[in-house]
Amino acid sequence: MRELDASVISENVAQMCQDANIYLGEEEYEALKRSLEEEESPTGKEVLKQLIENVEIARNEQIPICQDTGFSVFFVQWGQEVHLTGGTLEEAINEGVRRGYTEGYLRKSIVDDPLYNRKNTGDNTPAVIYTDLVPGDKVKISFAPKGGGSENMSAVKMLKPSDGEAGLIDFVVNHVKAAGPNPCPPIVVGVGIGGTFDRVAVSAKKALFRPLGQPNPDPKFAELEKTLLEKINDLGVGPQGFGGRTFALAVHIETFPSHIASMAAAVNINCHASRHLEKVL
C-alpha cells in the first residue's frame, strides 16, 4: 500500500489552478490556428486572429486567458492501492484551490448560497469533485476551470428510446443553435448519452476533458461526433456569433448503459478557451 500525504495533492492542485487558467492546451491552440486557415468569413477570420492573440498574450504575460476563472471542476481517478494521509481528499483539493486562486490572483466566482444571500466564498471553493476508484497505486487528477457563461448553456433531456439517432441529433443541434454566441464560440460540445438524469450530465461534462478532437473509441459514436460537428458548423453562427463556419471545434460523446425505457441525453458546452489540465501523482 502506497501512502500519499494530502499536502502533496494541495500543492499540485494549487499549481494546476494557475497553469490551466494561463496556458491553453496545445490541442486547443492548434485547433484555433487550423480554424483560422479554414474559415471563409472575413469577420470570422478577424475574430479568430484576436482569440489566438489573446491566448498568446496570456501565455507570455502570465495572466488568465479569461476573466472568468470558473467553477473548479475535478475528475479524480484514485488507485485503490493508495492510502491518503493527513486529511481527506475533499479537504486537500479545496485547500489547493484556495491557495491557487489566492496566490494566482484569479477571480473568485463561487457564492455559498445559490438563491438568497449569494455571498462570495472568497477563495473559489468548494470545488466540484467526481471520484472513481481504479486499480493501481497512482492518482490521476483532471482539472477544468469551467466558465459560468458556457456552463449556463447546459441542458438535459430525457429522450425516448424510439427517438433514436435522429432525435438525439435534433436535441443537440437545436440546443447548440439556441445557445448561439452566448458560450463564446468557437465552442467544444460535450454530449452525454445514457444513464440516469444525473449520470448523463456528468458524462457530458467528462466528455470535455478528452483531448480535443480525439474520437470516441466506438466507431458508431465517432461517426456521430463527425455528423454533429458538421451540422453545428453548418448553422453559420461562426466565431463569437459573427458568422462563419467555425462555430464548434469539436464534439465529444461519452456514453453510459441505459434503462430499457429511457435514453437520457445531455449537452455541456465549453467556450473557445477550453481549459483543462491533468496530473498523475
Topology:
Layout: E1 2-5, H1 6-22, H2 26-38, H3 42-61, E2 71-79, E3 82-85, H4 89-103, E4 128-134, E5 139-146, H5 148-151, E6 155-159, H6 164-179, E7 187-193, H7 197-207, H8 219-233, E8 248-255, E9 263-270, E10 277-280
Parallel strand pairs: 1-3, 2-4, 7-8
Antiparallel strand pairs: 2-5, 5-10, 6-9, 7-9
Helix pairs in contact: 1-4, 2-3
- In terms of structural class, how would the helical and strand content be classed? alpha/beta
Strand count, sense and barrel status of the largest sheet are: 4 strands, mixed
Number of strands: 10
Output the helix-strand order: EHHHEEHEEHEHEHHEEE
Distance between the termini: 14 Å
Mean pLDDT: 97
The strand order across the widest sheet is 4-2-5-10
**What is the helix fraction of residues, given as a range?**
25-40%
Q: Which residues sit in consecutive blocks of at least 5 with pLDDT less than 50?
A: none
Total DSSP helices: 8
Radius of gyration based on Cα positions: 19 Å
Count of discrete structural domains: 2
Shape call: globular
Beta-strand content? 15-25%
